[in-house]
Amino acid sequence: MTALTTAALGSVEASLAAGVSGVPLAVGDISNLFTSPTELASVFIEGLAKASLYLMIASGLTLTFGLMDVINFAHGAFTMYGAYIAGTAVLTVGVGSMGAVSSVGVFVLLIIGVFVLLALLGVVFEVALIRRLYEYPPIYMILLTFGISITMEELMRIIVDYWNVNSGREAVGWSIPREETVPEVLQGTFDVAGISIGGLHPFQILLGVLTVAGIWYFLNETRYGLFVRAGVEDDEMARALGINIKRTFTVVFAIGSGLAGAAGVMLMWSPLWRVNVPLALGVLLPAFVIVIVGGLGSFKGTVVASVLVGMLDALATWAFQVKVVTFTDVDQLLIFAILVVMLILQPRGLFGVEGQGDHG
Amino acid sequence: MSPESARSLPVPSWAGQYLRDHALHALVVAFFILYPFAYDLFVGQFGLIAETVLLRPRTMLTVLWLGLFAMSFDFISGYTGYLSFGHATFFGIGAYFVVLGYNGQLPLLPGELPFMTLLVLGGVVAAVAAVLVGLIAFRLSGVYFAMITLGVSEILFVAAENFDFLTPGGSDPSDGVTPGTPSGIETFTPELGVPLVDALQVEIGAFGDTSLLGIDLGPIFNETSAAIVVSYFAIGAFVLVSYLAMQRIIHSPFGRVMIAISENEERAQAIGYNTFWYKMGAFAISAFFGAVAGGLLVGYQGFIDPQNSFFFLVTGFALVAAIIGGLKTLVGPLFGYFFLEWVEEFLAREGSGGGLQPFLEQNLPDSLLDATISGGLTVSKALDSFMTGHGEFYAGIIFVLFVLFVPVGLLGTLRLRFGTQSLSKHVSHRLGALGSETEADDQ
Amino acid sequence: MTLLELDGVHTYYGESHILQGVDLTVEKGEVVALLGRNGVGKTTTFRSILQLTPPQEGSIRFREEELTGKDTYEVADAGIGWIPEDRRMFSRLSVEENIRAAVPNNASMSDALELAYETFPVLAERADQRAGDLSGGQQQMLAIARGLVGGNDILLVDEPSEGLAPKIVTDVGEALLSAAESVPILLVEQKLGLALDLADRFYVMDHGTIVDSGETSEVGVDDERLRRYLSA
Questions:
Q1: Size of interface A-B (CB pairs under 8 A)
Q2: How far apart are CA A296 and CA A305, in angstroms?
Q3: What is the structure's pLDDT at B439?
Q4: With an 8 Å Cβ cutoff, is A144 touching chain B?
Q5: Pick the CATH number of C4-87+147-173+183-230 from 3.40.50.300, 3.40.980.10, 3.30.70.100, 3.40.50.10380
Q6: Largest CA distance in chain A
Q7: A-to-C residue pairs, Cβ atoms closer than 8 angstroms
Q8: Domain boundaries, position A234
Q9: Chain A stretch 231-290, residues whose beta carbon is closer than 8 A to a beta carbon of chain C
Q10: What is the pLDDT of residue B92?
Q11: Is the pLDDT of residue A20 over 50?
């Protein structure tokens, strides 16, 4: 096993399968990762890309859950709606046949458009429903948003059903096939200095970085960000200083919802997630895990936890691809294992803030 | 404060309530006993219109085991205030234990054990699992407790979808497991009833016994399969016994400590109770009955898959049922499921009949049904896509309305009206404060 | 025109009846002390004015405008500042951010910061530190600074000397005295000497009502008129 330096994952798989098939965990396989810098680099880049996706799905939640104490179970449904809106738009415009530049242009417009649409939807929900329950025990917030979530999910099934029947596409099912939405240039992998990089990865990493920068800027450099941080610590004092906490929370909820939707646009292209109704729950649970592992009330914690989970996920996926482990959903198992281990070792998560998420 | 004064705290005048509860119990049991007869009668008499508004007995079976599961959820979440957000863990353990135990896939256990033995052993295993989870989880509270239990159930869910060990025959574990599949293992014939008394045992399942207590139900029921009715009574009796056992515990000194924990755990500790072990005990009991519910499902259905056992939404809908019926009312969640299933069946026919859609299909004029809304979509097709299989849409809306307008649930509202409970006591202090900081405030 | 006027205010915490008909007024240019033992409802009076614990009955008027029923932030916007017991810093925010949070939306931020740092130079030195890391006295200064930059027409000051060393108490007293030149103050203070030094008038509260009032010049620290309501 010496000629692995230039390998894409596929050839690694082939050569390893020949060498150590049937052994559940062979030391030789793992050491490969560390003796081959390019292999390590592609796993690292994939890890960053995954981290970006995790960050995007968790960032909206960390705002509403970590800061406002609103445990938003409809978060995943917002993401799913974002994915469907984007998917439908892409199908309508026909991105698949466009060139690289224009398809990325459409994509950027979509991210902005979906963010705005779902932020508006968030405002409607916050003002009409969520706001009624701030005075209630927080369990009611879980219940309310869970109810909203199952309604939204099933409504989407009805809409898709209706649309399929109406357009004679009965065979399509619930999901929008990824092949119809991803521009060709981004579908394959390309090599840079022998490092195999998925076409989408740089794109995802860029968006992840932009998300972190945007939220950091919002929280630390804007007046609303200041209000949010003040209100989180002591909402009575904030109100007594003239801060309209209600409106601040509406803004935060809108941003959280918009981010959830924008994440959906990104996930539309990810081979693991794609546009479908189960996306809602599939996104929700990992997002919760990341927020908890990072620590409630800490945006920094969410970023670190995303990177941690993304890297481990990439490693696990690599291990699966080279057949070190034979377990399809190893990434999902891993996420919840991280949650449990973290809660055992450090109940407040990596950067948890005293008093948040507790009963007192 | 002395323990005596603590005892008088949590349940005011519970003796009076106990009597009232028992009068109600009799009524409720009578309702459930008469239901299949009434269904048969009404459907025989009124045909489609009765089928439209009445829950099918097959669905009533689901109400029974899911209702038991939701009760076990309420037992820990409602009464101690610790939200067991991964309660599906225990439902799944109970269900899978019956299958794997019967198939002889578990260490130390011979295959083909009687169903009831497996049911009880599965409950015990679940209780042990609850203690293991509790050792970690009860060091935490609030949303962290909820999340760690959820984490455990999700791990088991993923494992159940992937472990080839579960399906030695080579089928995909995510498609589920079936008792009696390995060669050399006899067909699964689950018997439920009074142990050691043959006459009081029946085989449950869609192809199980059709006679009960020596009476052949076949000729009596025209609209329903007699096997369903026999299973309904056998499982119903088991659920009733389980309910009475849980209710007895709630009304015992042990149960009063549970309620004291939900209202103010620090005070319960200050009085001298070791709340940790009370919580563990309550969690184990709750897990036992949760697992029994899962085992009953397998008993009837002869099959289980991860989606219907370890999956997060199994807990989710128990929570929905518990809220609709009323948290901290124990039996309320069963009524919650009854209501929920009724709404779903009425507005969203699943597969084999019942509900509003067939009624409309038959009674609306053809000219209307065939009218085109747009493109290839007719009224008939629109009805079909809105009213078939989308029960969760309506359940979700109703649930949201409940949370906003009937937050204490159906039974909770009744009990408030009849004054056996106060609103402040209704929502556990601990559950209420979930995720928030202390609500104590200065003057 | 009376600046602040409470008329028959009744306030409850859950089922306990804390304020049982409070009447008091504060005029422009005054410092008024609200005296009384712990738990008689002084802080609740402040919370009622701020609508943090809205009164069930009675009226609270500020410049003849009714406050009851408004949101707390509207009360604050109307020009009522609160310097609460325990300071209530945003401890995870920096000193400067604490001040920024208190500045009204349409006011000049640089003027506000200049005012705060001029009044309390120590805050300027520590502008980027977490407020939670300040000493008790510095926190009290920051709390007063937040009140000053809020463009307020009255300050409700609750136990400003609590938990502070005597030397610091003097500083805080001086700061309040200089604040009082530009803005009226309603003051709750356990240290009777300090309260009487600062205030022009006083009210004495007991069991949720006002039981005595007068000019501070009429009474001394050992006056029986005050002692009977203040000693434990």
A1: 176
A2: 11
A3: 32
A4: yes
A5: 3.40.50.300
A6: 71
A7: 64
A8: 25-345
A9: 233-234, 236-246
A10: 95
A11: no
